[in-house]
Write a structure and sequence with these properties.
This protein has one domain. Helix content is 74%, strand content 0%. It is globular, with a radius of gyration of 18 Å.
């Protein structure tokens, strides 16, 4: 019953979000996405479906190519990848078995964290955003490296958690939901946490994807009303990402991803260095305008 309710809510949210995004883009005369952002959405969401994650590689490309100002990156990530992530969640919630109570509680906690975090992010100084996103990229690079070296937790075989670990998992997803609005991806931390608790890593996929599928549109609605967002890039990520998710989940299903992760590590580290250097170079007490070019 919980799974049916979650799936129905995702369909409804996806429809409302799509309509709102198109209207907002037209109102700002930003309804024509570029081919580069469409291609970026296709590539990042394809590998996101296979477990690579989309936030770190998207951030790296946005920064390296200068597609958006630095202050726009958190909003672009959450708003742009929202619809592809809804598609991912609809697929995995129906295909993978997991305790429905744990699934629903972690999703609700992550959404609550995003509701708290999104309005704060839109008011943060550019320097703070640069530092936060740069730190997020360093964390992502470390997680990719640990995965390739076989040092990530293997997890157990459980499909549910005892009450104590259940409460910890829910509280942690509230925090992860808030961090998502800063551009810090939820997938890897959620997978590590749930695996350490003994949950089957496969069962973590509908939890982490479902959490993101609900919280990203919730924060995305807020971000769309902000001035710190380029809806052309957001539309491009969504348009390219949705068919790529379907291709990855229903046709390709798996790939040898180790070499790809090493490539992502190199690019992500370079982008993190650029962002952190930009944040460091801003004089203390001076906050550049949010629309300043990267």
């Amino acid at each position: 019953m919980i799974v049916i309710l979650l799936a129905s809510a995702l369909w409804l949210m996806g429809a409302v979000y799509s309509l709102t995004l198109v209207r907002a883009a037209r109102a700002r005369a930003q309804g024509r996405p570029g081919m580069e952002s469409i291609g970026l959405g296709a590539v990042t969401d394809f590998f996101d479906t296979l477990g690579i994650g989309s936030f770190a590689p998207t951030t790296a490309w946005l920064k390296l190519r200068g597609l958006t100002p630095d202050g726009y990156i958190p909003a672009t990530l959450n708003a742009g990848h929202a619809l592809p992530t809804i598609v991912e969640a609809l697929i995995f919630i129906n295909l993978v078995r997991v305790d429905p109570l744990l699934l629903g509680a972690c999703i609700a906690a992550a959404v609550a964290g995003a509701v708290v975090g999104a309005p704060m992010v839109t008011r943060l100084p550019l320097r703070t955003v640069q530092a936060a996103v740069g730190a997020a990229l360093l964390i992502a690079a470390a997680l990719y490296t640990l995965t390739n070296l076989g040092l990530m937790p293997g997890g157990g075989a459980a499909l549910r958690l005892p009450i104590g670990l259940f409460a910890i998992a829910v509280a942690a997803h509230f925090l992860l939901g808030g961090l998502m609005t800063l551009g810090i991806g939820l997938y890897a931390p959620s997978l590590i946490l749930l695996s350490l608790m003994g949950l089957n890593p496969t069962a973590a996929f509908p939890i982490m994807m479902g959490a993101c599928a609900f919280l990203m549109p919730v924060s995305g609605f807020r971000f769309m009303r902000s001035e710190r967002i380029d809806l052309r890039v957001v539309l491009g990520l969504a348009i390219g990402g949705i068919p790529a998710v379907l291709l990855a989940a229903l046709v390709v299903k798996s790939l040898p991803l180790a070499a790809i992760r090493w490539g992502v590590v190199v690019v992500v580290l370079y982008a993190a260095f650029i962002l952190l250097r930009a944040a460091w170079r801003v004089a203390p007490g001076v906050s550049p305008p949010a629309s300043a070019p990267p």
